Fold:
Amino acid sequence: MSYTELEHGYQGLRSASRPIFYVGDLSSVQSTLVGPVASSIYRSSKRAELSDGCSNDDGCMGGSDLEGEGKQVLVGICAMAKKSQSKPMKEILTRLEEFEYIKIVVFPEEVILKESVEDWPVVDCLISFHSKGFPLDKAINYANLKNPFIINNLPMQYDIQDRRRVYAILESEGIEIPRYAVLDRDSSDPKHHELVESEDHVEVNGVTFNKPFVEKPVSAEDHNIYIYYPTSAGGGSQRLFRKIGSRSSVYSPESRVRKTGSYIYEDFMPTDGTDVKVYTVGPDYAHAEARKSPALDGKVERDSEGKEIRYPVILSNAEKLISRKVCLAFKQTVCGFDLLRANGQSFVCDVNGFSFVKNSNKYYDDCAKILGNMILRELAPTLHIPWSVPFQLDDPPIVPTTFGKMMELRCVVAVIRHGDRTPKQKMKVEVRHPKFFEIFAKYDGYKHGHIKLKRPKQLQEILDTARSLLAEIQHRAAGPELEEKQGKLEQLKSVLEM
Ligand SMILES: Nc1ncnc2c1ncn2[C@@H]1O[C@H](COP(=O)(O)OP(=O)(O)OP(=O)(O)O)[C@@H](O)[C@H]1O
Ligand SMILES: [Mg+2]
Structure:
């Protein structure tokens, strides 16, 4: 089943009427719940109201017409317009607005870039992340000034922009990464940029990398990654870049490594030709999907709608643990990273920080639900909002319904056996002929009251008897009683002849 089919199936399920109380079962083929997650209480018809009364100018995403004007948690979205106006962001914010006690405030890009942080909107919770052109230093100053509840740690977003820091953090967490060395041409210490190059390998600060190996700019913002092929495979290199239309890489006959700039050199990990993209929402939830590696031939696989083809992935337990560790180590609730499945293990080769899954309603629902509950659990008590955590880890699975509370069916365990049976290899025949009694006597039948004949020689005797009796019948030498048994004797004969 393709990813698109899965998503269509999910949309079909969603189109069924939504209950007021929505108890989350967040596990699915492509989304993995690493641990228990609280369910949420949505207002039943809020989404329909959202399209009204929302003006983009004030940064409101809707829901400004709340009945009773009760207290609300203000959740600020502080990111470049390209990100805060993106489709996945809008999908998730619309769903977050369905929480009665949450109001979204999108910081306009103009304000972020031009206004001083003292004049930025005041919020209780901040979802803020770096992308090209974003003033991360200002966002950090704002967070220090106003001290909101932070969803994605801001200073660590500097680390995420530096592949050396990313690898150092992953290593310190005991997460598997490709074997690597840093060639740091910015360092004044010559020991940090020693390069010996020969046809099929490089030595970086004394560490040898045989081709194929990967060369990555130290800046994670620079996507010009080169993979060098061994001469046995024809040499040359594959040059990766940020997707341009239908291409993500191109072959180059150049076999020598770059001589300006600082790079990470690492072992090329042999995968099945796909990258596993993982998207966390907190340490206990991860969505994973696979895509064709840009390292392959550089041709991007697209479906009829032009969307990049994705394959469903089920994370192993070890990978769920990696996902948890990455989310916690980088303090990024919403965090995307790449896994390479190679040699029976999973290696993290890239951590991208804040990143939403695209075109998955299941993910949009899950993500909004987890973030909403996380925010309210943290802030409702301090803001005196009468919100109760709808589901605790050890709660019995009781769900409210329109006619009271009832136990929720969590699973059905069945022990099932197949219905086909081996036919019994048995036949019954009554014998009266003296020849059978001779055999009975011969094997001490009278002494024991029964005989068991198993050996080939014994069975041959029974067969010989059956044959001679049948011959008698043929020659009309047998009495009528034996003739009656002809059918049985033939059966006995053919069974023993098999
Ligand atoms: N060590 C490796 N072994 C094999 N393939 C690799 C390795 N490192 C990277 N790749 C391939 O190169 C691709 C790009 O690498 P990486 O994800 O580190 O770069 P990036 O430009 O930062 O990516 P992104 O677009 O996700 O930000 C990976 O998706 C993977 O297919
Ligand atoms: Mg990547």
Observations:
- The chain has a mean pLDDT of 87.
- The pocket of adenosine-5'-triphosphate (ligand 1) is lined by residues 178, 214, 216, 220, 223, 225, 240, 266, 268-269, 275, 293-295, 338, 340, 349-350, 352 (CB under 6 Å).
- The first strand starts at residue 21 and ends at 22.
